[in-house]
Design goal:
GO terms for molecular function: isochorismate synthase activity. Belongs to the isochorismate synthase family. This protein has ten helices and 20 strands. It is of the alpha+beta class. The protein folds into two domains: 7-162, no CATH class; 175-443, Anthranilate synthase, CATH 3.60.120.10. The chain has a 20-stranded antiparallel sheet that branches. A hairpin with a 2-residue loop joins strand 11 (256-261) and strand 12. The longest helix is centred in the last third of the chain and has 19 residues, at 425-443. The ligand C=C(O[C@@H]1C=C(C(=O)O)C=C[C@H]1O)C(=O)O binds next to strand 8, strand 12 and strand 20.
């Protein structure tokens, strides 16, 4: 993402962070995204402000098993020098936005060229969009950052934002041709391999995924794709991150990894999937099957129990809410909300929780081995944490599902499903295909 800096030169020492905020007249996110041309990052989540990042005041990268802690340390260096008026609106405070790779060992090559093991941008120009207002925050970091230069940028960007008009939603680019990393036969074989490992007692559950390359008829437009996802998946976390070479990783995921706000954390288990019905009666019947199925309940319970275990040492007073069914446009899932008290930084919580067995499996190490050995594509940032954090350690991370990485002419989509002892390869295949729908519908 963002700049060409590597880990060693991520954050120059001895800088200071100057941050100033101004409230703008009505400027909706969609119009700002259209005007931004090449935003570094876009983040929207249910019940929290949206963040749009243009340019980088600082960019931190990291790799390997320590990448969560490394990002936190580098960001702390930047935040420690902050010059920002006490009266500045808290909602528009500077936030790092970015994400992680799924695996500890990650190669930023192929479609993932430009996406490091961890990459977070502190926006130079940061728009924070709430239900009531849009704020413009300008951040500058360096030995020569001054309030005067920040104010000049504020003037310029605020004037340009006043002239921002909404612009029209164009027709989607259209998909000319699709190509799978995994054909149906290979998928059957992969599911059987997982089931064999489960039967031999080394594994309880593993999530198998695949990818789909879609060649586009027209040019990919992030603002259009983003607007379409907003219409179809209003309750999801929508995100987009742009890498150096010009590729964009984007999606609309229903899965919160964790939110930390003050001393409270919110997470949950989202696992087990059924299609939506064509009629209300059919939909109710599918929901009843999901709720009453021993297989789906087992698969779901493994995730909920594991999340509580993963929070051990990071949270107190862990409370589990009643199981619900989350209905999305394409599928329905079992969902169990979990909340707790915590003193940890959101990055420490994301580190502890990633990957939950909703996208990895159990036991965790055996599941990750199975995924690495059996899957025939590179997960990159798919199914990994994406989100934001601030100077206080508050933030939100979502699990980057229902996602794709796109350049001008093609998009690679990702989708997977949990495999347990009694999984049927053909049923799993159909469920996986449904998970491509959000992105395919935004492109076709
Ligand atoms: C792996 C994906 O989804 C995950 C797997 C699910 C399942 O196994 O039923 C359900 C929701 C997600 O936790 C995906 O969307 O690619």
């Amino acid at each position: 993402m963002g700049t060409r800096r590597n880990a060693q030169e991520s954050v120059p020492a001895g800088g200071r962070l100057v941050s100033r905020t101004r409230r703008l007249d009505d400027a909706p996110l969609s119009a700002l995204v259209r005007a931004a041309e090449r935003p570094h990052a876009i983040w929207t989540a249910p019940n929290e402000p949206a963040v749009l990042a243009r340019g980088a005041a600082a960019f931190v990268t990291a790799s390997g098993t320590d990448r969560f802690a490394s990002v936190r340390e580098q960001a702390a260096t930047v935040f420690s020098s902050i010059d920002r008026p006490d009266a500045a609106p808290h909602v528009a405070r500077p936030r790092f936005v970015g994400g992680f790779s799924f695996h500890d060992r990650h190669d930023a090559t192929g479609v993932w060229d430009g996406f490091p093991g961890a990459g977070f941008v502190l926006p130079h120009v940061q728009f924070t969009v709430t239900d009531d207002a849009t704020y413009l925050t300008v951040n500058e970091y360096g030995a020569d950052a001054t309030p005067a230069s920040v104010e000049r940028t504020l003037d310029k960007v605020a004037a340009a934002a006043r002239d921002t008009t909404h612009g029209d939603l164009a027709a989607p680019p259209g998909v000319r041709r699709t190509e799978r990393t995994t054909d149906r036969e290979t998928w059957r074989d992969q599911v059987e391999q997982v089931v064999e490992r489960i039967e031999s007692g080394t594994l309880e559950k593993a999530v198998l995924a695949q990818s789909l390359r879609a060649e586009l008829d027209g040019a990919f437009s992030l603002p259009d794709a983003f607007d379409r996802l907003a219409d179809a998946y209003p309750d999801c976390f929508r995100f987009a991150f742009r890498a150096n070479g010009g590729r964009t990783f984007f999606g609309a995921t229903p899965e919160r990894l964790v939110t930390r706000h003050g001393g409270r954390l919110e997470t949950g288990a989202l696992a087990s999937t059924a299609p939506r019905g064509d009629t209300p009666a059919e939909d109710d019947a599918l929901e009843a099957d999901l709720r009453n199925s021993e297989k789906y309940q087992h698969e779901h319970q493994l995730v909920a129990d594991s999340i509580r275990d993963q929070l051990d040492g990071h949270a107190r007073n862990v409370a589990t809410g009643d199981q619900q069914v989350r209905k999305l446009t394409n599928v329905q899932h079992l969902f169990t909300p979990i909340s707790a008290d915590t003193d940890d930084h959101v990055l420490a919580l994301a580190d502890a929780l990633h990957p939950t067995p909703a996208v990895g499996g159990l036991p965790p190490a055996a599941a990750l081995d199975a995924i690495r050995e059996i899957e025939t594509f590179d997960r990159g940032w798919y199914a990994a944490p994406v989100g934001w954090f601030d100077a206080d350690g508050d933030g939100t991370f979502a699990v980057a599902l229902r996602s794709a990485v796109a350049d001008d002419g093609a998009a690679t989509l990702f989708a997977g499903n949990g495999i347990v002892a009694d999984s049927d390869p053909d049923t799993e295949w159909e469920e996986v295909l449904l998970k491509y729908r959000p992105i395919l519908d935004a492109l076709e």
